[in-house]
Amino acid sequence: MTSYALMEAGKTFSPSLYSWNLIFHPDLFHAEKPLSIVLFFPFPFVVAAYFKDGIVRSLLTLAIFYTIFWFFSAQILRYLVPVLPLFCIAAAVSVERYLIRLSFIRRLIDKNITVVTVAILLILPGWVFAFKTVNHKGFPPINEKERESYLSQELPSYKAYSFLNSISGNRYRLYALLDENMAYFANGQFIGDWFGPGRYRKILDKLGNEDRLFNELRSLGAECFIVNICRLPKKIQSTWLSQKKWLSWKYIYPVFGGGNVILFKITGRKMCHQISPEILIDTSLEKLSLNEPTSWKKVGIPIVDRSGESSADGKAAVKCNKDNFLKQTVDVEQNILYILACKAYSERTTNKARLQINWLDKYAKQFELDIIVINASAAWMQYSNVIIAPERAEFAEICAGAHKDGAIWFDEFSFKALSYAPCQAK
Ligand SMILES: [Ca+2]
């Protein structure tokens, strides 16, 4: 629903700026879908009618009170939708009062062609949006296989719920942190929202302390715990990815990772983890031939610096963007958890690093991928995440680049298998 960054949109209040942003910058209000541009055009008529027409004034006063309430609560576009009909009626009355009563306009609307043209113009933005959506995403899925694929692509955490449903059916009680929109896909009981007994605030401040987190989750009756890492507040996300405190937890341990989501099981039995030897070759990019890492494959022309001035370890590091990066292919076992780690920094902190694993089948053909997007720091920092190798995976192609624009420096990669078993009494 909301996020800590969300209130940024509402620091200053200007009705005209707000109307403009609501229509033309809906992303500021976490809009799932944009509002029609048609809503913007009656604005001058509505303002004029407000001072002269009792009906418009009544409708708009109600709409304004609701909008003020919305402004000081969660500024999410869909929460404003209930008041839009009031605005639409006020807009229709205003346009009728001040536009249609003009004689030359009245002469125009007496013609059928005018009515049809206006009707088409009113519905056109919706059709343009639908056309763009289908053009970009294709038609909706029509069978179970297509549905799974579509949801996995559209919803970063969908695979975690699919995994949980497959191993536990509907016999689980899950606490999902920052993932409230996925409640529909959980077959078991689902807890976690911005408000109420399972509100996020109670959990977010306990992520650094397993005992407190365990007690809180258990008091809610949770048996599983999902963390949507990409929606964590920036500071908490940075600490989560760089310190990986969850790795030392004994009673909350990961069983699934992927798409920036980790699914943990909560148990009363103490669990210990085991980490395999390093799987990647030349993790620090030091083995060079003609200034190119010999164990990594280049895509495009990433910049390899071997002066030692840009490296986190040894002499060499690589600067990548979204088109120019390194990748390395390694053997994996399906349904095994892996920890992927690297050190990264960016000269601009607005840049985002992108760790990507392409999963390849036995024919070395890619059939799935996992992407981890990291807010880059201005200094070298280690980032790590846990990912499960999907069924059919025989190889993993580890890629490191920039997410969208910008460039990221990388060094010290790591890819190791992770497993858990009950701790043995000493
Ligand atoms: Ca290095």
Order of helices and strands: HHHHHHHHEEHHEHEEEEEEEEEEEEEEE
DSSP, total strands:
18
Name the CATH superfamily classification of the largest domain.
Answer: Galactose-binding domain-like
What share of residues are in beta strands? 25-35%
Whole-number average pLDDT? 89
Oligomeric grouping of the chains: single chain
Shape: globular
CATH class of the largest domain: Mainly Beta
What helical percentage do the residues reach? Answer: 25-40%
* Biggest sheet overview: 6 strands, antiparallel
Number of helices: 11
Domain count? 3
What CATH calls the topology of the largest domain is: Jelly Rolls
Question: Which parts are unreliable, with pLDDT below 50 for 5 consecutive residues or more?
Answer: 1-11
Description:
The chain is an alpha+beta fold and 426 residues long. A hairpin with a 2-residue loop joins strand 7 and strand 8 (292-293). The strands form four sheets. Strands 6, 10, 11, 13, 16 and 18 form a six-stranded antiparallel β-sheet that branches. A five-stranded mixed β-sheet has the order 2-1-3-5-4. Helix content is 31%, strand content 26%. The longest helix is centred in the first third of the chain and has 26 residues, at 112-137. It has three domains: 6-101, no CATH class; 146-269, Rossmann fold (3-Layer(aba) Sandwich); 288-422, Galactose-binding domain-like (Jelly Rolls), CATH 2.60.120. Residues 1-11 have low confidence and may be disordered. Helix 2 (43-50) packs across helix 4. Calcium ion binds at residues 284-286, 311, 313-314, 316-317, 411.
